[in-house]
Amino acid sequence: MKLCKWHTLVFRCPSCGHDAEYAAEIIEGPRKGSMWDPAYWCEKCETTLRARDKWLFGAAFGPLMALVGTFAMQAVPPGLHLAQWLAFAFAALCCGVVGWPLSRLLSRHLLYWEPLDPAGLRRAESRRLREDDD
């Protein structure tokens, strides 16, 4: 199995509680997900997971990045007479600078991880019930 570590997403396994500063996406192997619904891997409990509520993450991240790009394009003074590709490069740089911490912040609070196998679902439910009792 081949993994790709996405450092723009913060990961927390619902089955074992493992926290990681990256989400390990399965890119090759029998447990690989589709392009629209990728599968992720918990390195501690070896559970296959998927990200739930990606639409909420995208609904917040996309418009915010569009705002940053628009503001960056408007921030270039017309008196400089820069080529259009330089203005786009400046906007892309601004989106990169703002997008990295923003994606980590939004993934920490808006993405929920869900096990794909039934055993992982049972472990996650029992762990959730134990946390509710405490």
User: What's the domain count?
Assistant: 2
Average pLDDT: 84
Tally of individual helices:
3
Strand order of the largest sheet: 1-4-5-6-7
Query: Radius of gyration over alpha carbons?
Result: 19 Å
Shape type: elongated
Order of helices and strands: EEEEEEHHEH
Let me know the number of strands: 7
Instruction: Classify the secondary structure makeup into a structural class.
Output: alpha+beta
Q: Helix amount, in percent?
A: 40-55%
Q: Alpha-carbon distance between the termini? A: 37 Å
- Pick out the low-confidence regions: none
**Major sheet details:** 5 strands, antiparallel
How much β-strand is present in the residues?
A: 15-25%
Task: Walk me through what this model shows.
- The protein has helices at 54-75, 84-110, 118-133, and strands spanning 2-6, 11-12, 19-20, 23-28, 40-41, 48-52, 112-115.
- Helix 1 (54-75) runs antiparallel to helix 2.
- It has 2 domains: 1-52 and 112-134, no CATH class; 54-110, no CATH class.
- The protein contains 3 helices and 7 strands.
- Strands 1-4-5-6-7 form a 5-stranded antiparallel beta sheet.
- The chain is of the alpha+beta class.
Please describe the topology of this protein.
Blueprint: E1 2-6, E2 11-12, E3 19-20, E4 23-28, E5 40-41, E6 48-52, H1 54-75, H2 84-110, E7 112-115, H3 118-133
What is this entry, summarized?
The protein has 134 residues and is of the alpha+beta class. It folds into 2 domains: 1-52 and 112-134, no CATH class; 54-110, no CATH class.
Primary descriptors:
134 residues; alpha+beta; 2 domains; five-stranded antiparallel β-sheet; two-stranded antiparallel ribbon; 3 helices; 7 strands
